[in-house]
Design brief:
Rossmann fold, 4 domains, about 40% helix
Length: about 575
């Protein structure tokens, strides 16, 4: 299996759990290791229980695991909640100044975190002392960690205080716990990898694809998309608008798309509810727009800082009437870049809205990537007329009926073309009509786009042997966990394979039908309570899966839990 080291930082909001987790993840990423990290936090500013999990490996990993090798407990509650998750030979580092009734012993390392931090520059640095202890247990040295600390806190008094705190923890562990942890790691010089989360990769994909306009109203987990793009606005010439609500967000994005910008808006499921009328406007006016739905558990506010794959059926059928759209769901942090880049091409090539389904897990999880080859990013604006083509074009029909369903597109104020469209049904020239013939022609035209788009979307990913005792089917952010579950099952003598979808609509009927037909025992794995992908498969292929593995507690799928449930189904 190779190296797989799992570290958790736990505490309450306000103790710097996320900051320390990210610094730790960055330290190992810069040292040449593959890293996957996720964060779990409550929807409150202070208090509650938060944790940040980091998985370090010598080969790519795409999921977290349940077991913990090193637990950094910044409060007593973390020990109580996660002690049972400690693996054999693991250690828990806790603050002896704060813990009550917990004594140092095998696997439990009491460290005066608060006292050591106070002597270094302030009690608030107790979390950094714990990072120094971790580096000492791994015999890792402090050079890379110190670089990350200085980058985060600067080289002034605050930064120097954090360096002292890390050194104090490192020295304390060397003197007291030299042999308490047997896994030792060394930095790999010159082999660092970029570390980013799903939202950041998505933003980079949008920028590479030529996105110039973003509008949004803040909503977890999509808010960082707007924040990231706003931070790059001056440098890259972007327009980023925080609107008064999600209704305005989608409508101004549609306006930007109508004017010729590559436009995007981002929200969560309950915000997408407010965008539904705008979604229909984009479809009817044939305006390209990309909409990001960062899924979280609902209905209503639900669990605002947890994860779920509960919006699939919603986004497929949102809005009254028949209207085309594409639905994509990135499989990983790296995939978020490429899926987003393709989304803008689909939107303009077929002149329709494209919905990207991420979720809280993928949006906030960090992973090392090998970088993105921008030469593979192709910007295709579809049938967009050139200035020369419209220079003397006076008889222009924005919604001209064509065999493909895609009309030649001119932009407002471009040459002599008069661009007219209407939110009511319209004729080819874009003027309002109630003609039965126009209505039939225009709706048929719009729906024909899906016939060509279905041939163009990427087929599902396949992993594992051609024939297997059990066949798993999943979508979106579960890919890493499912792929590893296949490997776990193989090691335990159960042959398994995987079909995974990241481009869901138009539905890839033929490859899914073929896979289902050849499966001995098929299981659809997804993070919702009603088996939304399983229902979609049955609707589009007529085939019913043999079972479902569903998780809907707001927590992400993990390889071991999937493998365990598969064994219950087939053994």
């Amino acid at each position: 299996m190779g190296l797989s080291l799992n570290i958790m930082v736990g505490g309450e909001a306000g103790q710097g759990v996320q900051s320390m987790g990210f610094i730790l993840a960055k330290t190992f990423a810069r040292s040449g290791y593959h890293v996957f990290a996720d964060q779990d936090y409550e929807s409150r500013i202070r208090g509650g229980h938060n944790f940040f999990r980091i998985r370090i490996a010598d080969k790519p990993v795409g999921a977290v695991t349940e077991e913990i090798d090193i637990l950094l407990a910044l409060n007593q509650e973390t020990i109580q909640l996660h002690r049972r998750e400690l693996s054999r030979g693991s250690v828990a580092i806790f603050d002896s100044d704060a813990a009550k009734g917990i004594r140092s012993g095998p696997g439990l390392l009491a460290v005066p975190l608060t006292d050591l931090a106070d002597k270094s520059g302030g009690k608030v640095m107790a979390n950094v002392v714990a990072l120094g202890v971790t580096m000492s247990l791994l015999d890792y040295g402090l050079d890379v960690l110190n670089e990350a600390l200085l980058e985060r806190f600067g080289s002034g008094n605050k930064g120097q205080g954090n360096l002292k705190a890390a050194a104090a923890g490192y020295q304390y562990a060397r003197e007291n716990f030299k042999k308490d942890f047997k896994i030792k790691l060394k930095p790999k010089k010159g082999q660092g990898r970029p570390l980013m989360n799903g939202n950041e990769a998505l933003c980079l994909g949008a920028i590479a694809a030529g996105c110039t306009f973003v509008s949004a109203y803040p909503m977890t987990p999509a808010t960082p998309i707007m924040e990231y793009m706003a931070a790059k606005a001056d440098e890259l010439g972007l327009v980023v608008i925080q609107t008064e609500d999600e209704i305005a967000a989608i409508n101004v994005a549609i306006g930007a798309g109508f004017a010729g910008a590559r436009a995007m808006t981002a929200t969560s499921g309950s915000g997408f509810c407010l965008m539904v009328e705008g979604l229909g406007l984009a479809a009817l006016t044939e305006t390209p727009v990309v909409i990001v739905d960062g899924q979280r558990p609902g209905p209503a506010v639900g669990l605002p800082t947890r994860t779920e794959q509960g919006d699939l059926q919603f986004v497929l059928h949102a809005h009254h009437g028949d209207n085309p759209r594409a639905v994509l769901a990135p499989a990983s942090v790296e995939d978020a870049f490429w899926v987003t880049a393709r989304a803008f091409n689909y939107a303009e090539r077929y002149q329709l809205p494209v919905i990207i389904l991420t979720d809280h897990y993928l949006a906030t999880a960090y992973a090392t990537v090998d970088g993105f080859d921008l030469s593979n990013v192709v910007i295709d604006r579809g049938d967009l007329l050139t200035d020369a083509a419209v220079a003397n074009l006076k008889d222009y029909k924005r919604h001209e009926v064509t065999p493909s369903g895609v009309s030649p597109r001119a932009l407002p104020m471009q040459g002599e073309a008069l661009v007219v469209t209407d939110a009511d049904e319209h004729d080819e020239a874009g003027h309002l009509t109630e003609s039965a013939n126009d209505r039939s022609q225009q709706l048929s035209k719009r729906l024909r786009k899906l016939e060509s788009l279905q041939k163009e979307i990427k087929p599902p990913r396949f992993y594992g042997p051609p024939q297997a005792a059990v066949s798993l089917i999943g979508w979106g952010s579960s890919y890493g966990a499912l792929k590893e579950a296949v490997d776990i099952l193989k090691e335990e003598g159960i042959s398994a394979n995987l079909l995974h979808l990241n481009e869901l609509w138009p539905f890839p009927t033929e490859p899914v039908d073929r896979f289902m037909a050849g499966a001995k025992h098929s299981l659809v794995v997804e993070s919702n309570a009603t088996g939304q992908l399983a229902r979609l498969i049955r609707m589009e292929t007529g085939r019913k899966a043999d079972g479902n593995i569903l998780r809907f507690d707001g927590r992400p799928q993990t390889p071991a839990s999937i493998a365990g449930q598969v064994k219950k189904e087939v053994v």
